[in-house]
Amino acid sequence: MSLVRVNTAFLHNFMATHEVTALQEQVTSIHQMLHSTDAPDFTGWVDYPNTLNTESLHRIQYVAQEMRNNSDIVVVVGIGGSYLGARAVIDTLKPQLFQKDNNAPEILYAGLNISSTYMVELLNYLEGKRVSIIVISKSGTTTEPALAFRFLKNFMDKSFSPDDVKKRIVAITDEKQGALRKLADKQGYQTFIIPDDIGGRFSAFTPVGLLPMAIAGIDIHKLTQGLTKAHKHLNNHNIEQNEAYHYAVLRLILNRKGRDVENYVSSEPNLYYLTEWCKQLFAESEGKDNKGILPIAMTFSTDLHSLGQYVQDGKNIMFETFINTGKPTADIPVPTLDGDIDGLNYLVGKTVNEVNQTVMHATALAHVEGNVPVISLEMDNLDEESLAYLMYMFMKTTAMAGYLNGVDPFNQPGVEIYKTNVFKLLGKPGY
Amino acid sequence: MSLVRVNTAFLHNFMATHEVTALQEQVTSIHQMLHSTDAPDFTGWVDYPNTLNTESLHRIQYVAQEMRNNSDIVVVVGIGGSYLGARAVIDTLKPQLFQKDNNAPEILYAGLNISSTYMVELLNYLEGKRVSIIVISKSGTTTEPALAFRFLKNFMDKSFSPDDVKKRIVAITDEKQGALRKLADKQGYQTFIIPDDIGGRFSAFTPVGLLPMAIAGIDIHKLTQGLTKAHKHLNNHNIEQNEAYHYAVLRLILNRKGRDVENYVSSEPNLYYLTEWCKQLFAESEGKDNKGILPIAMTFSTDLHSLGQYVQDGKNIMFETFINTGKPTADIPVPTLDGDIDGLNYLVGKTVNEVNQTVMHATALAHVEGNVPVISLEMDNLDEESLAYLMYMFMKTTAMAGYLNGVDPFNQPGVEIYKTNVFKLLGKPGY
């Protein structure tokens, strides 16, 4: 059974059923290619759920438990796909909007920018605390995480004994080669392996994501159960039975009708990093060769009072994907106000989440009225299993969408151009 | 002298000088209209810098000091323009990426969403702390802040004595009418006034923004000095001498060439809410009648490893506005690594911010190469004066841009449609 439903009720004004079914043949052949024995490079994530064995999960769990025991803070050093998967899952399932979870170390992130202010503040904050580091990089030479790790390595060497440092730094990197592999082996850090055939933005459920998630108290066994369900259910060429492909096809049809922007909408602020993860996954996989959909994200109703005017009434370049995650982490009834001065007593008897859900529904109707198509992805509730399912589904969606649109969803040539320019201007030897 | 320069060096491939000068006549007539005695409604912000008197600033300062003294936490209750101005200034000038400032109360925000999870976490977090509330709403009946204030009023009435509550709740609202005015007068809360002729998104430097800013330790006298400078310098019809209008004209020309998306880019994560404030200002002012530019924002280099692929190589629907704020809050030299395993020793001798600035410059060049126009707004450093200058400049830019594009920059008709739909579905009496 699928844990995510694709609701097309808000799309009737924008497309006809036959436009969807017309793509079945193409979908079938791409599906067969993705699942064939000579599948393209970097499709290791497709069958990865089958290869996750109890032993490797146990080792992750064991190292995570050690870090939970001996750390006040764990700093995850990585950029792009090296931190977004972990952060998406942690922030979504362990909302810590105002206060830290006392049972888990605080998880911080570094190496995801080159801000000196950020680095100075981070180093000050770490001072005197029991710190551990997870450094994540395939090559070990990506500028941002390598630079951040120089500072953090110095901090660790200064703050802890050599033996303690070895326990407190874990490298997640290539099995055999690269600067980080070399450094980790030389220094005796523990390591986990980034599989060769899985690109950064598809790596959330490899050790890259699973180790930080486990440290934060996420149940990684349940995550893998969700993955296994998704792997099984979404291995189906039929558009009407495979929500990942259905969603891919709907996006493609809307894009071909001139909708160049996709707005990922949620009504819960703790889903912010889930939509950030989506943005990378879809933009890097599909945004190339002058093609693709620009992914943006909004939290409603916050952004209805900011960008809502444009969505409703601006230029029609957008469609929306509502991520409706069902039952919230906590709910609370609307309180009465004596005298009803603010006129809200008509809401008494409802919970806050019921009001929130109604606002989302009313907004979808208003946006359709304003000529903005809305795809609604619906879940009953958000837990480890259903979140992993949703994220695997998105990976399958973007793989299908890329091929349907005639681009390779697994490369990122545009990222290389800016890197080369940077190295030239910085005077890197050889550039 | 202007505190913000508009650098057009990255625009040569995309427009010619005569396209800019061709708009001078239209700019002049809109300028005269904005500054005439029969200016349109909601232009009170234009000359507002002149009306800010020492007495009203002193009162804000006084109330802020009281709240600083008696509060661990100040909750700002407001949505859209009622919190974004304050948050933009506070987060930009008092970066608190990891740790709170011990000399100021923690500033939290509520009434900006309808998330039950958010509200439950907030109420738990406030328990046992010395809390004050600033509730901001012109009408007092906007659903989000009114609903949040019901919870917070109950919390305050339960946690503090009636006399203490009166000192701990400040309402910023209409001078005479509306639900919040009525409630504040009945309960004896202190109040500040939202001027009638200034809309929410233009209200950052009225008490709406100034009170929370002062509580956070922002020097509001220096802010007003920046405003006064901006008011004086940007009161000039000449496109070449008025950066606000120059920027407005560049945006319009790019938009007419099919650039429907503007990407606000900064290289410092603490500018996040400044760009959120920009997004509201520009989207609500210009996104109407099927027109306008969709504002999005990115932090580089973080998002170069996420959305960079699309910007470089995706569909050409975008232009970028780099906000280069000059000298950072803190800087630090790149450390050496023995053996140079990561190959970064060529950066030794530079500071982290020098690397960051070079990456920004190299990225602008790469994006221009990828057919993405880049406007660069440049400042020497970021303090109260220059930030207020920049924000006032943006207000003047969007006012000019709206009129140049044939829309009223001071209304927001699209926001009303969704509200009506919400009230219908929620069963509000009269809908």
Topology at a glance:
The structure is a homodimer of 431-residue chains.
Chain A: E1 5-7, H1 17-21, H2 24-35, H3 44-51, H4 54-70, E2 73-77, H5 84-93, E3 106-110, H6 116-126, E4 131-136, H7 143-159, H8 162-168, E5 169-173, H9 179-187, E6 190-193, H10 207-215, H11 220-233, H12 243-256, E7 261-266, H13 272-286, E8 294-299, H14 308-313, E9 318-324, H15 352-369, E10 374-378, H16 384-404, H17 413-426
Helix pairs in contact in A: 3-11, 4-10, 5-10, 5-13, 11-16, 12-16, 13-16
Can you walk me through this structure?
2 copies of one chain form a homodimer. By secondary structure, the first copy, chain A, is an alpha/beta fold. Chain A has helices at 17-21, 24-35, 44-51, 54-70, 84-93, 116-126, 143-159, 162-168, 179-187, 207-215, 220-233, 243-256, 272-286, 308-313, 352-369, 384-404, 413-426; strands at 5-7, 73-77, 106-110, 131-136, 169-173, 190-193, 261-266, 294-299, 318-324, 374-378. In chain A, the strands form 2 sheets. Chain A has a 5-stranded mixed beta sheet, sandwiched between helices. In chain A, helix 15 links the parallel strand 9 and strand 10 (374-378). In chain A, helix 13 (272-286) runs parallel beside helix 16 (384-404). The longest helix of chain A is centred in the last third of the chain and has 21 residues, at 384-404. The first copy, chain A, starts with a strand and ends in a 5-residue tail after the last helix. In chain A, 58% of the residues are buried.
